[in-house]
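Exam revision sheet. Question 4 asks you to relate a sequence to its structure. Input first:
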Amino acid sequence: MAQPMTTTPEVRGHLASILSGQTKDRHDTCRAHGPYTATLMPNGQWFTCPACLEEEKDRQRRDEQRQRAGQAGTAKLEKLRENSMIPKRFASRTLEGFNVDGHEGKAFAKAACQRYVERFEDRLAQGGGMVLTGSVGAGKSHLAYGVGNALLASGYRVMGIDVYELIDLIKERAFSQKGGSEREAIKAFVGGLDLLILDEVGAQLGTEWERLILFKIVNERYKQMLPTILISNVDAVGLGDYLGERIIDRMSEGGGMTLTLDWGSYRKEAAA
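Answer key, structure tokens:
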């Protein structure tokens, strides 16, 4: 059985007046939409411009849609960050937060990384990567993860990982899991990632197999035109000896670059 609507006597009287055509009306003018007919409401207020009411409803709907989109965007960003594996220490690093202290070399490196972010669509289309070399504490990881975090915020799929951890994951996926293979393990670091950041390259001085795995990942991403950032305390020559000169040369293709951070410990300066 349908429940009767609960209304006040004034509202019921007003509805009856509308149905009988006996409402109290007056002509009014809206500054935005011109003349309209206003109706006296039960609360003693005159009904406002109907076009304004529709615009307000549309605005509220758009606000609700933006809010839902913002919530979905936040959830997506959180998921991207969760999958990025970026270490907690570097999760908040930004390029803006890299202090150059009037140092010309630091200013150039920071500006180069900012351009890399701004032109990442081109880098992604052409496969241009980046190599960051320099002494311990020079700020290589800050700059690299500043790039990664900026791209994450724009919705790109980014992963950052130390090479020794990468090797452990390859071993686990290739040999510890039932049905796993080296090829399938390597694919996990190629397809589906717009940018891969590899830290501590060359530091572990691993076995020939480990070097070969690293070469295969970087080379496969190169062939798929997917950008990779390499971070190393080894200079460009030593890195060429470690990975092969061909790989290092390829990193400069498609708008890629090699940045040498040849100054003292940025980390100590920042701490001071």
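Marking note for examiners. The two ends are 77 Å apart (CA to CA).
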